[in-house]
């Protein structure tokens, strides 16, 4: 008596299911899609199409666009947590919180390396710069601007960002003295009133 041979299972058409490398392939597809379209115009469905997977898998691994952006761009911090720490407190102390949180991202060796890498990516690629600008605006600058309130909240917050990026370049990249070697506490004491002036002035 002979046993009938079984045919190998046929793979159903459509998007491929998740596998060991699926998460990494989604991240790669997200990085490419963010670079091409920017943060605002990128959707999870577009990333799923680029990765060749079902959109539900992207939701499964990342939950939403913010999480996917943070992973794809290899950010050294979660921008949403940064914004939450900044707005958690009274308005008269907002300038000090902004300076403290921002410089705190740079103070460790690992944080400094990651922040420098992010800056290099921004200044060497127009696509990355656009994506980072849109993403950071969405997750940090807009929540802080809402906390600041009118008038000219977005302009004020943008000026704060410009001021602090300049300080970071001076202290951590160019190493200009005496800013580079000043203790963090006194540096914050000097900067906090200037940043508060952007908020209240």
Automatic annotation (TrEMBL):
Claim: DNA-binding is one of the keywords in the record: yes
Location of the DNA-binding region in this protein: 43-62
InterPro entries: Homeodomain-like_sf, HTH-type_TetR-like_transc_reg, HTH_TetR, Tet_transcr_reg_TetR-rel_C_sf, TetR_C_16
Record keywords: DNA-binding
SUPFAM superfamilies referenced in this protein's UniProt entry, alphabetically: Homeodomain-like, Tetracyclin repressor-like, C-terminal domain
Pfam families membership: TetR_C_16 (PF17920), TetR_N (PF00440)
Domain HTH tetR-type: residue ranges: 20-80
Region (Disordered): 1-23
Protein name listed in UniProt: TetR family transcriptional regulator
